[in-house]
Write a structure and sequence with these properties.
447 residues; mainly alpha; Cytochrome Bc1 Complex, Chain D, domain 2; two-stranded antiparallel sheet; two-stranded antiparallel ribbon; 12 strands; globular; Cytochrome_c-type_DH; heme binding
């Protein structure tokens, strides 16, 4: 074959070679390992797994976690790499819009049980790092129960008005007058860790009441305490090192131990932050505007003293229906006969000078008795069994009122049997799946 013939054949193959090389150049490249690692850290900081993983699920981020809200139970969506049920087929734009604006890929509006009002100012690069991490994980091919709310809350078009009222767009910008640590802390507290979602009270439209930012949230059967630096109502008696340690371990000796949603946040999220980030959070929280409450007349960790009531009564016959008798039977072995705690005072804390018993509202005392405590922080574990199956409503009332009166805020010792029963009912976990006619009611990607 002559040179002319070879040249002709090469020229004929040139379009094919260009097409192949172009396809290779356009093929999506897997995210770099450092981007995935950064996304993992941001996912932990955002506590994404807590809501997007159903109890007992074999794989993370498959959705289906039942979120009890004032308008009904909302099931979290599948955000795994599954292309049908999850976000595997979503573009970057679609994912960013869902996280920051509450709009799903198909255009339907998400309920703000997904805290996109907090995430609205997240940096785009951080949102995409989270997506890169999620896409690197094994897919969870699990369908999610459908969210079915009663009228008018089942009309999603109404969420457009809610978003107009409560969604502030635009990435959060640093305040140049503040330190880098303060700016980092603000980004974590206000955006990524979305602390205000629980710790800020809500308006009548269920938006965050930013005039009382971080002044304490009503979570139904739980209270998310005031975390502003107000001395009595907030955490003004805490120093920054204590707060950073609390976010790591879930407890501060002779002062506080986490329960409920806060224990979950520490166990699944906050303990994994770097010490630098935890101290940044503490610095920013220490700078918040103080929000007071005249019902809290003394710091929550300054109420109560050791009580010898139980020891004095042990010589006689303690009734199983009195608060003292119930405390002696169920609590004294761990918390001490005088409420002084046991061991190092962290795993089995003192009940006096404790931020839970020293609150004017005893909802958290009742909730802890009924549901127990499970908080595994770094190098510390706080555990308490749930007594919901062991104690009747009248016994829960008697015990909680005794604890408040003897070791905490006396004004909180006012729980009635009717209120105790209502709180037990409210604390019952919603069913993780909706069954109708023997079939699971599912949607491809939840709500």
């Amino acid at each position: 074959m002559g040179n002319d013939g070879l040249r002709t054949r090469l020229l004929a193959l040139l379009p094919v070679l260009l097409a192949v090389s172009g396809a290779q150049a356009q093929a999506p490249q897997p995210p770099a390992a450092d981007l995935i690692a950064r996304g993992r850290y941001l996912t932990l900081a955002g506590d994404c797994g807590a809501c997007h993983t159903a109890p007992g699920a074999a794989l993370d981020f498959g959705g289906g976690y039942p979120l009890a809200t004032p308008v009904g139970v909302i099931y979290s969506t599948n955000i795994s790499s599954d292309k049908i049920r999850g976000i595997g087929g979503w573009s970057d734009e679609a994912f960013v819009r869902a996280v920051r604006e509450g709009v799903s890929q198909d255009g339907h509006l998400l309920y703000p049980a997904m805290p996109y009002d907090a995430y609205a100012k997240l940096k785009r690069e951080d949102v995409l790092a989270i997506k890169a991490y999620l896409m690197s994980l094994p897919l969870a091919a699990s369908s999610v129960p459908s969210t079915e709310l009663s009228f008018p809350f089942n009309q999603r078009w109404g969420l457009a008005f809610w978003r107009w009222l409560h969604l502030a767009r635009g990435e959060l910008k640093d305040d140049r007058a503040q330190t880098p640590a303060w700016n980092r802390g603000r980004y974590l507290v206000e955006e990524l860790a979305h602390c205000g979602t629980c710790h800020t009270p809500r308006t009548f439209t269920y938006g965050m009441d930013n005039a009382k930012a971080f002044g304490g949230g009503d979570l139904g059967s739980w209270v998310a305490f005031n975390i502003t630096p107000e001395r009595n109502a907030g955490i003004g008696t805490w120093n920054r090192t204590e707060l950073a340690s609390y976010l790591k371990s879930g407890c501060i000796k002779d002062k506080a131990s986490a329960g409920g949603g806060m224990a979950e946040a520490i166990e699944q999220s906050l303990q994994y932050l770097t010490e630098t980030d935890r101290l940044a959070i503490a610095e920013y929280i220490g700078s918040l505007a103080a929000v007071g409450d005249n019902r809290q007349t003394r710091p929550r960790d300054r109420w109560g003293t050791a009580s010898s009531t139980v020891y004095a009564l042990r010589a006689g016959r303690l009734s199983s229906v009195t608060g003292a008798g119930l405390y002696n039977s169920h609590c004294a072995s761990c918390h001490g006969g005088e409420g002084e705690g046991n061991g190092d005072g962290e795993g089995f804390p003192s009940l006096f000078h404790h931020t839970t018993t020293g609150a004017y509202d005893s909802r958290n005392v009742v909730a802890v008795i009924l549901t127990g405590v499970s908080c595994r922080g770094q190098n510390t574990t706080v555990m308490m069994p749930a007594f919901t199956e062991w104690l009747e409503d009248e016994q829960v009332v008697a015990l909680s009122n005794f604890v408040s009166a003897q070791f905490g805020h006396p004004s909180a010792a006012t729980i009635t049997p009717a209120r105790g029963k209502a709180r037990r009912e409210a604390l019952r976990a919603p069913s993780p799946a909706a069954i109708e006619d023997g079939r699971l009611k599912e949607t491809p990607n939840g709500s």
